[in-house]
């Protein structure tokens, strides 16, 4: 037995509410299925996992909390757990009121929104593209600058124009057009600037990718053992074995990367500013996602190319999440700039410091 | 199955910064004039003199008991020294195998006489080992070994041919893997590991030029070579288990992904002269990410070994991922810098590029081929 009570409890909950049985049949994988799970997740308190104890949290080990995001990836949960946890992590540290229900956070590119003072309060005006689950969120925590310093502004999607969109996995990614007056109680200095909040999002995606990768590889191995052609399970063919061992290696690398991301995300929330491990994790999990999805689809044959087979719940998340909060190219440029400015003599000292 | 993907966070090495700084200072001085094209040989580069200096510093046999010349330090400290040596392209081949593999084997299952004979000399950086496993007709299929040690009065008569034996021509001893009992049909049974003094009469060592033009590996012929009974390492007939239990040590270390560092560093040196080269940033960022993650995987396995677990499967994954990484470097370099590889070039970049280009095919052969490793992983997945 592991001594990770929170992780074990989350695993049991996800298995019961959105285990393999829920992945097949009419409506499987749809967001509508998320409501009952969500109620139980909130009941468990999981969404408060990254809040400090003095601000409504329950003193859980942040690494264990973040590992539940990997689990959520393993179960393709149709609800905004990572988004809400991230929003709560930021909101609680800014000393603002914790949200009721699902929440999201956004770290828009400079210039896309403007936060200004207006009367006793503030005004937030601009565009927030592709906000996860915005249509169902009670509040979106927008990290942006006010007078040159990072602030959090809480805006209710109900006060915005919502243009619905979704990623290829069917998860809502809505555009919010905001022009809202905010009371002074909805704005506070942010513990993380927009760049670091974006990196927090990247870390959450890297961790979730690792979970989805585990599941994709496991399902594919299982399928290779079950599917018989030429009188034997296709997993007995060496070509299939070699491909699946590649998938396993990529999954292992993604898991190690996720561990790195979790440690760095926890450090960010403690005031740290090192984004390199998160960059590396998002790059590596994103690359693994492409490789493993290809192998999984190929191994499943035509059945995997249908809307009926549950494989899609995972491969589509791999293809979606690797793009969100910066893809491999975005983060490679960032990390590469750091590496190249370290130069020939500084490169190894940089790498070996992690 | 999830256990296969589970690489726990590597343990922290306390005070490793001081050790790292010490090794770097030593290397900066020792290798001040050591050119990139020589560094490109990585852990194939041989210098008895350098190994002896490392021995003097206490950087060989770091984890072994003091009574055998060791230093009773942690595996994590040893890891720091190994990776610093590799990152600098230090010529570590002379003692690498004895420190990584042969010494630990003898420490674990050797006789008192064997331990006393070789361990203190290995620790001093004065005693070098090679590994005699592969044969002309037995490569991946190691159990097909034909070399035979036939029991005779007081010992064995050995006949057979080993091949690809790295640095045999500069080594003092070989750990010979051969059949002592039964026949070929017994496969994993009846094979043993024997300690061979390479000055023993009847042994002929012939260097073979490899793709780089260097003489790194050899053919070693045994013609009626007499070995005493006391040459048996561990248990006679148990060689297969002994060999396979070494594999996690052999396959998970930093030498499984740092072999192309000399070229990578030269490449970064050139690219850092071109600020604003976005394509270079993307490519080097990706390589940095891979390297950071490989290090974490490898250090995680090191932690498992330290805790006494047997991560043979995880080690195979590290080696497979690591070889992919190391092998990709020349192609990536040529996508960024136009240069005709030339070992004879006066210019270091072209020579380093050539040396690494010609070395990388071996990375997915030595120590277990890519296909064999992937077969092991597939077995771990329950497919075979
Ligand atoms: C630089 C270098 C240094 C070396 N140093 C040493 C040393 O010091 N001591 C030592 O004992 N050996 C050493 N070796 C030998 C090394 O261990 C062997 O090269 C390796 O085990 C493969 O054997 P082989 O070359 O005979 O190839 P083979 O086993 O003949 O393989 C040829 C090809 O067939 C593939 N293949 C074989 N079997 C299978 C299978 N079942 N399924 C799918 N594909 C298969 C292999 O993957 C490979 O691609 C060294 C090799 C190199 C390149």
UniProtKB/TrEMBL annotation, chain A:
Keyword flag Transport: no
Residue ranges of domain Acyl-CoA dehydrogenase/oxidase C-terminal in the record: 196-316
Keywords attached to this entry: FAD, Flavoprotein, Oxidoreductase
Keyword presence, Oxidoreductase: yes
Recorded superkingdom: Bacteria
GO molecular function, one term: acyl-CoA dehydrogenase activity
InterPro entries membership: AcylCo_DH-like_C, AcylCo_DH/oxidase_C, AcylCoA_DH/ox_N_sf, AcylCoA_DH/oxidase_NM_dom_sf
Cofactor requirements of the protein: FAD
Pfam family of the protein (one): Acyl-CoA_dh_1
Protein family according to the UniProt entry: Belongs to the acyl-CoA dehydrogenase family.
The name this protein goes by in its record: Acyl-CoA dehydrogenase
Species in which this protein is naturally found: Albimonas donghaensis
UniProtKB/TrEMBL annotation, chain B:
Protein name: Acyl-CoA dehydrogenase
Annotated Acyl-CoA dehydrogenase/oxidase C-terminal domain residues: 237-381
Pfam families assigned: Acyl-CoA_dh_1, Acyl-CoA_dh_M, Acyl-CoA_dh_N
Residue ranges of every copy of the Acyl-CoA dehydrogenase/oxidase N-terminal domain listed in the record: 16-126
Domain Acyl-CoA oxidase/dehydrogenase middle: 130-225
Family: Belongs to the acyl-CoA dehydrogenase family.
The organism of origin for this protein: Albimonas donghaensis
An annotated GO cellular component: plasma membrane
SUPFAM superfamilies per UniProt: Acyl-CoA dehydrogenase NM domain-like (SSF56645)
